[in-house]
Amino acid sequence: MALRIEAAGLSVSRGDMLIFSNLSLTLSAGQSMVFTGPNGAGKSTALRALLGLVGKTGGHAHFIGENETALPLAFAAHYLAHQNAMKPELTARENLAVWKRILGDFEGGAGLDPEEAADAVGLEGVLDLPFAYLSAGQKRRIAFARLLVAWRPVWLLDEPTAALDKAARETVATLMNSHLGKGGIIIAATHEPLGLEAAEAMAFTGPTRLVADPFMAEAF
Ligand SMILES: Nc1ncnc2c1ncn2[C@@H]1O[C@H](COP(=O)(O)OP(=O)(O)OP(=O)(O)O)[C@@H](O)[C@H]1O
To answer: Which residue's C-alpha comes closest to atom 28 of ligand 1?
Structure first.
């Protein structure tokens, strides 16, 4: 079988709240999925659980690579969170160069140079400004350029188009579809259409209380 993500029976609880349960998915090279649902429904938690960044109550998630080797998803994935993960005092160029050095390339592809990555998001002109000086949309675009400086087959994106104008949203859609065309896999939590061609959707409905009866709860 092709390179893929496999998750089965993934469940996360926080305190006495079950955030979601039994999340199962399989996505192969070139496939994408969007997580949808209202604020607080559990989309970000699901991305973080897939990556192993929050404790799971059950289930597992893996990247299945060459020769059917199962790896933790984090080895093969980029994670674009709500935060941009850039040092404010370093320039955009320095930030991208640091990430390129730290991340390196996963097998099967090669990342762009910081200049090429910034150009791909239409922002070569701001490369030598400290990240802190950039506008909110420029910051998000440079954060997105991080995905391009190191090859990772899997992109896990949390509201990737937050703060982006229409032109930048179109640029990001083109880059995401191009990543899928190279055999990448994308899961994105979003409140708006991302322009991902043929993305599957998974709807999150929100947490439920693990102990329904308050009198029973007191007994614990
Ligand atoms: N310790 C906790 N106890 C109970 N509930 C918690 C705890 N920590 C987080 N939660 C709840 O987990 C839920 C999932 O939050 P998450 O950030 O995953 O939602 P989201 O779908 O990404 O929302 P948004 O669209 O606002 O980004 C929220 O309802 C939050 O209140």
So the answer is: 40
d(CA 146, CA 210): 39
Q: What is the ipTM, given to two decimal places?
A: 0.95
- Let me know if 39 is exposed, middle or buried by CB neighbors in 10 A (0-12, 13-18, 19+): exposed
**163-208: pLDDT as tens digits:** 999 999 999 999 999 999 999 999 999 999 999 988 999 999 999 9
Please provide the CATH number assigned to the domain covering 4-218: 3.40.50.300
Note the pTM of the prediction, 2 decimals: 0.93
Distance, in Å, from the CA atom of 179 to the CA atom of 184, rounded to the nearest integer, reads 5
- Whole-number Å distance, alpha carbon 111 to ligand 1 midpoint, is 33
Question: What residue ranges do the domains of the chain occupy?
Answer: 4-218
